[in-house]
Amino acid sequence: MRIVVGESAAAAARVVADLVERFIVSAPRPALGLATGETMEAVFAELVRRHREEGLSFARVRAYLLDEYLDLDRDDPCAYRNVVHRLLTAQVDMGPRAVHGPNAQAVDVSAECARYEQQVQQASIGLQLLGIGANGHIAFNEPGSPLDSATRVVELSEQTRADNIRFFGAGRSAPVRAITQGMAAIGAADRLVLVACGEHKADAVARALEGPVTEEVPASAIQLHPNVTVVLDEQAASGLVRRDRGVRSGGSATAR
Ligand code: F6R
Fold this sequence. Notes:
Blueprint: E1 2-6, H1 9-26, E2 31-34, H2 38-54, E3 62-65, E4 67-69, H3 80-87, E5 99-100, H4 109-123, E6 127-130, E7 152-155, H5 158-164, E8 177-180, H6 183-187, E9 191-196, H7 202-210, E10 228-233, E11 247-248
Parallel strand pairs: 1-10, 1-11, 2-3, 2-6, 3-5, 6-9, 9-10
Antiparallel strand pairs: 4-8, 7-8
Helix pairs in contact: 1-2
Bound molecules: fructose -6-phosphate.
Fructose -6-phosphate (F6R) is lined by residues 35-39, 66-67, 80, 131-133, 137-139.
């Protein structure tokens, strides 16, 4: 596992964008796994900047979302498909058909989970971006998720709903349910890039990277993956004990 610590969230986002750029430039038909959430917003913004100012092309990229809320209208701005369209796809040379995700409007949700599981498997994700919840979730695999779980409907934890209410604005509550890729599909990606910024992530990061591998901290499963890069800012890294092991610091942090 490589751990890169940038001096700020912006520096961390640049490191992640470097990794994504290298991947999409070099892979013949890049299949990119996308997470959503606040941490990814800075990464998407940096990728859009590179597209506009440096000509980085996404034309060959196929993207696959980790998860999607259930029980939202199709055009709800908080639906992850719409978030990714607004913040990334619509701003680069990538058509909406190049972005895949679970269909939260499906009548038969179980069948939809099975369909998406197979689609992701066939896509063979080359690089999977991951955020981490303050409770250690990855995608919407909440604590207690089996490490071999498949794409499925999950109930979001109270903590996740409370953390995500900020995206929904006044008068709304956060959805109770979501479809999420399971732990097995995430682990099947060739490379994982987990990103975390802010002090509120420090405890989850320390448990995921330095604690035992356990279903209680789903992100700890990344310890089992052969090709993982973790990109942090100083605050998110502040709970790590083994800071000297593979950690590079600084605003110009780079990762290979
Ligand atoms: C959402 C997802 C989640 C988020 C996590 C962190 O697609 O995969 O696991 O990455 O909840 O969210 P933020 O970045 O908002 O703290």
